[in-house]
Amino acid sequence: MSRRMLAILTLTCAVAVGNIYFPQAIAPLVATGLHLPPDAGALVVTATQAGYTAGIVLLVPLGDRFPHRPFLVTLLVLTGLGLLAAGCAPALPPLVAASALVGLTTVAAQVVGPLAAGLVAAERRGAVLGTLLSGSTGGMLLARTFSGTLGEWLGWRAPYLVAAALALLLAASLAVTVPLTAASTRRRYPALLAEPLRLLRAEPELRRSCLYQAAVFAGFSAVWTCLALLLTGPAYGLGAQAVGMLALVGAATMLCTPVAGRLVDRVGPDPVNLVCMLGVLVSAAVLAAGSFGGAAGLAALTLGTLVLDVAMQCGMVANQARVYAVRPGARGRLNTAYMTCAYLGGSAGSWLGVRVWSAAGWRGVCALLALLTTLALTRHLLSLRRCATPPITVPSRSATG
């Protein structure tokens, strides 16, 4: 894979993931612009995220059924048209419908990963996946700033129209850059939809990768869900803007995930997973000090979220490298199973985190992060122990005389 192609694929991941997050920053502007109640703009965000979840389940498996280039181009064209429709929507109902279409089709990042894994040698797969993940992280972090600033200057429609132009330009670029690959399966669509569940039952390496990511991402989501409650509460008394500023520390993961990918290529995913899980445990201890408030507590929150973000994202590189190596011809369906488990874990973590916060406060949330990570770490250590234990061989009758 050439550097030019990798750069275009990384940008594709950034734009595709950014489409999920940029409506969050302009939801109030949408409500104002359409003369709606302030909370009505949240429907746009919900529709986009619901569409994205459906896209992972319904569309990503088709990456194994169709050649990647036309499939990616079609997804980006549909995304661009959905963004264009959203930017021109005269009222909330058509805007919500267009947002759902954008979420459904902006799953290009989940198709690019399996494509890239098949275009590079196994010894370079981790480095490439790390680079792609840095693009996704950049899109997630920068999309809110981009849309919020542009929306304040030119109105809420401008971010949608600019994002539409970017999606359509990327579609044209991919049409002439990505090589034409052959489909890896001819199974019918209903069989493809059922395949991720069958793969989860059949592949232990997929199951443990899903367990690792679901557990760590659940703790990650619990922390970030409750962080706003902590910062805006009596311990700090800050505004919601402080949460956004603190989230910018996650930009460091854009530099760290390519390094983690190269380490995966060199030593394999298991050692990288081990270090990342230990890093999450360290972050839980550091974050717990944030309950004291003041400058020292804010410093602990900054350092703790930085370590947590880096460890979670680098662990994801290791998990994806392991998953893509399971069955090269089923990477789309494997990725569907993996990402679905990860998002289910994140959703459960957000729900559980709020309830732990109500019962035990910030330290309880940090303990939840440590507990979930310990479960994953225990499973990982058992796996490493089994791999290190040589199989017991029974000598044959002829060998013993």
Give helix and strand order, one letter per element, not per position: HHHHHHHHHHHHHH
Mean pLDDT: 87
Task: Tell me the strand percentage band.
Answer: under 5%
Distance between the termini: 57 Å
* Tally of DSSP helical segments: 14
Q: What's the count of strands?
A: 0
How would you characterize the overall build of this protein?
The protein has helices at 3-33, 42-58, 68-87, 92-105, 108-119, 125-154, 157-177, 189-202, 204-231, 240-247, 253-267, 269-288, 294-324, 331-388. Mean pLDDT is 87; it is low at 396-401. The chain is globular, with a radius of gyration of 22 Å. 80% of the residues lie in helices and 0% in strands. α6 crosses α13 (294-324), α12 (269-288) packs antiparallel against α13 (294-324) and α12 (269-288) crosses α14 (331-388).
SSE order and pairing:
Elements (H helix, E strand, L loop, with lengths): L2 H31 L8 H17 L9 H20 L4 H14 L2 H12 L5 H30 L2 H21 L11 H14 L1 H28 L8 H8 L5 H15 L1 H20 L5 H31 L6 H58 L13
Helix pairs in contact: 1-2, 1-5, 1-6, 1-7, 2-4, 3-4, 3-5, 3-7, 5-6, 5-14, 6-7, 6-11, 6-13, 8-14, 9-13, 9-14, 11-12, 11-13, 12-13, 12-14
Relevant terms:
401 residues; mainly alpha
Briefly say what this structure is.
The protein has 14 helices and no strands. With 401 residues, the chain is mainly α. α11 (253-267) packs antiparallel against α12 (269-288).
